[in-house]
Every structure is written in C-alpha cells, then in structure tokens.
Model the fold of this input.
Amino acid sequence: MVLASDFISDDKNDFSSVVNGFMPSVAFVPLQQGSDEFVECTIKENERVKEGQVIARCANSYVHSSIPGIVKEICVWQYANGKQGKTAKIQLDGSFSFTGRKIERNDWWMYDSTILAQMLKNSGVVNTFNGAVSLYEQLKKASQRNDVSIVVRLFDEDPSRVTESFIAKRYFDEVVEGTSIIAKTINAKSVVFVHDKQCPLNFEQIQEYFDSSVGVFTVPVNTKHYPYGTMHDIVSAIRKNYKDKFDNLGVRDFFIDSVTAFHAYRAIVLGIPEIDCYVHVCGECLNVSGVFMVKAGTTLQMLIDQCGGFKIPPAKIVVNGILTGLSVGSLDVPISKDVKSVAFLPASEVSVPFTETCVRCGLCRKVCPIHLWPGNIYRVFKSDLNEESVLEASVLCIECGLCNAVCPSRISLYQTMKLLKEKFYEQ
Done:
C-alpha cells in the first residue's frame, strides 16, 4: 500500500448538498449498459415517450427514457466507457411523471423475493461496485446459494472521487434500506457495511432495517492508504476484523456500493426507475465543482454550461477517477448509469502523452499490492508469445492503477491488464 496523497490531493471539497442539474433540452440515452449486449428497442423515431418509459430491453434489465419528449433519432453514439453503442436522442417535450412530483412510499416488505427481483429488473438498476452490471443478473446467481453475504462499500475506491462517500453520508438511511431490500431478495445470511474509519456508523440504527435472522456487521477501513476499496482489499479488511467468520468470503458473494443500494431504494420504495445519475464534477478547469444529480443522457457539454464554462481549457477529461478511470475525447459523451465522476484537468496536471519502451525498472512490480509484474505481462502480451499464461495472470489484477502511476515509460499497464481480463472472461 501507498499513501493516497502521493497520487491524489486529499484536500477535496466536502459537499453537503446535491446540485440539481439543468434539464437537458436533448438527452442522448445509452440503450446498452453493463455486460448486456443484446438490445431490443421498444420505441421508434418520431415517437413520443414519457419520463420513465421503457425504451429498450437488454438481456437482464430495462432502459428508460430519462425525460419526456420525442425520439428524434436512434443512432450509434460514443459512450463514457470508450465504446460505442445504440443511443436514443430524445428532445424534451411534455410533462414529467416523477420529477417535481410527490412520491408515496411502497410497502415493499409485503413483496416476496421473486417480485422484488423483477421490480429491480424492470427499474433498470445496475450494480456499479466495479463497472456496471445488471443488478438482476447478479441477483439470479446469488439467489441460488444458501449462504451468500452482502458487502456494502460506503466510500469511493478511487481517492479522487466523492460520489459514493457523498451518497452514503447524505442518504444513509436510504442506502441501508436499499441494502435490506437486496438482502431480502437473495435471502442473505449476513450484511457487512465497510466504511471509512473517519466516519463511524450507528450500529443500532442499521440493525433496525434487518430481520433478526440476518447478521449485521461493520468494518472500518483506513482510506489514507491506497488501494483500499477493491474487492481484494475489502475482503482482507473484513477477515482481519472477523478472523474466523468470513473465511469463505469471496467473488461468489454479493458486493455493492452505496450508489447501487440507493438506487435499489428509489426503485422499490419510491417506484422510480434508474433515470437519474449522481456525478462528482470537478477539476481546476472549472469555475465551480460539486455533486450533480442529472438525467441520464445529459452530455458533458451540458454539465460545463451549468458550471459556468471553463476558466482554463482542459487538456484531458477523465471519467470515474484519476487513478482508475478512463479519458474521453469529446464533450458530446453522455452521462450514463456507470458514470460517477468527471474531472476536467489542465495541462499542468497531465503527463506528456508519449510512451517509451519498458526499461524493466521493476517499479510496477514493487508497487503492485498483490505482487504481480505488470511490465512483464505487458511485454509477453505485446510479443504475442504464451498469451494464455498472461491471460490467467491478469485475472488476479485488482485494477488499482498504481502500475500506471509509477511507470517512468508511461506504458498503459493498467489498461492492458484490464483488456486481458476482458479477453479471459470472453473465452
């Protein structure tokens, strides 16, 4: 582990409230999400849609219109994850179904697990613990086990972001209730809330939301030492605090973040599909920064307009964190369910964009928290020799991004490891 302040300034703003984003005159709503590839459009061009109306069905979830209006075009558009996919261009027109209206609570505890799972699918909720995966898809797998545990991360795994920490602090009761809904859906045996040790939890307050048959635990984590929020790090922290109780905790269990739990709450308790995104907008290029609640399909340009434009031209735009995020090259990229932050960086904070040959300095191996040698894996991959071995090794990567941060040759080690992992799981 290393000090997070070695890579990211720890003087982040402590936001106390969310900023309602401007209503977009045109929303570019991505129709594909997470691992779902098959998309069945349920709308046509020039058709009128309502806010919250289903506009596409994926294999394990639905996609909804984030605004009322007219479908101007169904096209291929750039996504925030660097890929391209089907997108609905919707022009704002008409009255809202959810925004600005009083919403009554549903008596969700009367529903059984099957109904709750279907409601989460119909609401299009995704799990953003690591990327974006259909929550329903994971619920189906977890419900087949009798001893599954739920682990809830209440902080951001990238120290340059504040979204998950903000949601956990600002909407704590909603996050806990959303977790209890998921726990009932899969009949979880235990729930573990993993939190920043600087933000202690009220254990009695949490227990009130869960049946006595569910074990509830809290685990503090030191977020001053990076990495601290990956599945690997969280499992280590839990086992350290409860030495014999969670020996079998691992990838077969259910890991979520506060954002996922919050959207599960909104979907079940309030009946609101996932059409709103909470995004941390920051960077020295901006006049203002904050946590914005925007409609899915709002473009980066619309966010900039609300921030009063640029005070310094950005040299790079990074989505989802300086250490673990990806850069995008256009302000036309829309906000989607998997976007938690957008940073606009000036040239003074951006390294010179060139790549040299690996000098075999070993720094990437030294800094890797699980003792991989990313540079060696990269060389083997580029040489097209023994690819099977590097594919298997890449699966162990926890995607902390430290190898990129220390590489003097500025090789895209983190991106290479991520690509190899994707190739391994596609086999």
